[in-house]
Amino acid sequence: MTTTTAPAALAPRQDRSAPWLLIAVAVVLTLFIVVVPLIYIFWRALSEGWGIFVQNILAPDTLHAIWLTSVVAVITLPVNLAIGTSAAWLIARFSFPGRKALLTLIELPFSISPIIAGVCYLLLYGRQGLLGPVLAAGDVTILFALPGIVMVTLFVTSPFVAREILPLMQAQGSEQEQAALTLGASGWQIFRRVTLPNIRWALLYGAVLATARAVGEFGAVSVVSGAIRGQTNTLPLQIELLFNDLNTVGAFAAASTLTLIALVVLILKTVLEGRTA
Amino acid sequence: MMAMAVASGGGRQRRVLPGFGLTMGLTLTYVGIVVLLPVIALALKGAEIGPVRFWDIVTAPRTLAALRLTVTAAALATVFNAFYGLLMAWILVRYRFPGRRLLDAMMDIPFALPTAVAGLALTALFSENGWYGQVLAPAGISVVYTIWGVAVAMSFTSIPFVVRTVQPILEDLDTSQEEAARTLGATPFQVFSKVIFPAILPSFLVGATIAFARSLGEFGAVIFIAGNLPMKTEIASLLAVIRLEEYDYNGAAAIALTLVAIAMALLVLSNWLQSRLTRRRVPA
Q1: In this protein, which residues make up the domain named ABC transmembrane type-1 (chain A) (predicted)?
Q2: What is the ipTM of this complex?
Q3: How far apart are CA A277 and CA A166, in angstroms?
Q4: Which residues of A touch B91 (CB under 8 A)?
Q5: Helix/strand/coil for A94
Q6: What is the CATH classification number for the domain harbouring A110?
Q7: At A7, is the pLDDT very low, low, confident or very high (cuts 50, 70, 90)?
């Protein structure tokens, strides 16, 4: 009631004090929700000293988890770059029946939660799954091994690159590529000399986001990896394992490495956003 | 299938760019194997179960309890994110203050941080001897291993959605209407509720819908803090995984399909809201 009938003389004072109150509330909330958890990760990781921290990182299982996560990232990155670019080229440069449907399909993994993706993979490749008998007959191992982890990570990360470069390629149009074609350039030459320089920052941005996700993915990988200690445990899964073992400091040590990666990604993201804008 | 270069030059002679066959083959094969085939496996499994068994699985007490917990906690998380996200979008766009850009960058941390890391940190912070738990426990508030913990984890991982959908709309908002309202004697509250809020409402709802969908699907952060007690703090997606581990593929598929159906319904809702949003922004 007072706000609707406030005398005009009061309005300016309200104007001056309200913003600072709002900003203070926002800053305090953000401190408690975002900043403190971030600091807490490093604080707990180092709570027993640098010696223990290093020992925790160098524990064989954790080291293996770091190795496995790196392998997954190294395999998924080039695949995501190639497929993302291929999909964007197809959708931005040609019109064909089913183009919209294909785009929806490419973006589908964004609307399916990773844990469901993991369930889908198990229903497909599991012992009683759709292709289970075929795999067993051919002695092919996909689940609870590297191939399954890589494939489900690809599922989760597949839309990132295309989503970054597609809008850019659509906005730029194909004028320059048409000109190159008229001048007799081959498809590969057009892509390397004309398209790639135009989309490189967006491509890098998409690659960074996809790789960050590949490194940090938990739900999807946890379903298909079987979380075998020292064998199929990726770094995020290793955090859960250490936590369940009540080795909290060890879990935080493992988590701090992922947090550092996340912070680097954020910095890269800020830099690249400036370039792509 | 006929390939045609996307026409944008209106009537000029255009040649077809190379690479149609290659990119089409590559993209279709890849999306088919990596994305479509697993999803089809889920759909086929669901069809195999049959409607009666499907209904039995979904309405079993443990499934219902898990679904109820998931939806309730996601709703709590979304209510919080709606207020917090709107506040953040508002101050980041409307005010200039020291540290604003840093605060803006902070909004991306929940996306950048792996969910398992977030889950671990929140669980330790809110446990009885953690920094937050020490303060909350004497007050009789327990977060870890309760629905509140689930909601906390869900809200953390979906923080950016409302902020990042409202922010650009607020930035592009024409301020002349506000000024007119102010000149006519409207109070700041009236200006906000009668002029600004209706303009950003569609984007606000889109952000909240996506945040809700993401919360429903959140797994990594939640399982650390929830304690995962059947009938009490077990989320639906975890129950699907448990069913898989018990080799109850039907149970897993039915629960997974239910979650996919809810997610798809929310996606349709958000697309509908988005189309309303764009229509509003382009005056006829």
Answers
A1: 66-273
A2: 0.90
A3: 14
A4: 19, 22-23, 26
A5: strand
A6: 1.10.3720.10
A7: very low
Tell if the CB–CB gap between B14 and A178 is shorter than 8 Å: yes
**Short-list A215, A240, A237, CA closest to A156:** A215
Q: Which position has the higher pLDDT, B264 or A14? A: B264
Per CB-CB distance under 8 Å, the chain B contacts of A69 are: none
Question: Is there a domain that residue A51 lies in?
Answer: no
Distance between A65 CA and the closest CA of chain B, angstroms: 14
pLDDT band at A8; cut points 50, 70, 90: very low
Residue keyed to tokens 């909350």: B136
Name the CATH superfamily housing domain B54-281: MetI-like (1.10.3720.10)
Confirm whether A52 is domain-assigned. Answer: no
Distance, CA of A83 to CA of A135 (rounded, Å): 26
Q: How far apart are CA B79 and CA B90, in angstroms?
A: 17
Domain range for residue A188?
60-276
Residue of B27, B109, B267 lying closest to A83 (CB–CB): B27
On whether the CB atoms of residues B128 and B137 are closer than 8 A, the answer is yes
B174: left (phi > 0), else alpha (psi -120 to 50), else beta? beta
Reading phi first (left if > 0) and then psi (alpha if -120 to 50, else beta), residue A87 is in alpha
| Whether B87 and A25 lie within 8 Å, measured CB to CB | yes
Q: Which of B100, B113, B258 is nearest to A42 (CA)?
A: B113
Residue A53 lies in a domain: no
- A180 lies in the same domain as A237: yes
The answer on A188 and A264 residing in a single domain is yes
Q: Dihedral through CA A182, CA A186, CA A190, CA A196, nearest 10?
A: 180
pLDDT tens, residue by residue, B62-80: 999 999 999 999 999 999 9
Residues 6 or more apart whose CB falls under 8 angstroms from that of B72 comprise: B147
| CA dist., res. B223 & res. B123, Å (int) | 10
b/e for A111-132, b at 16 or more Cβ within 10 A? bbbbbbbbbbbbbbbbeebbbb
Question: What's the number of domains chain A is made of?
Answer: 2
- Domain segments of chain B as ranges: 54-281
Residue A41 parent element (H or E): helix A36-45
Q: What is the C-alpha separation between B127 and B125, in angstroms, rounded?
A: 6
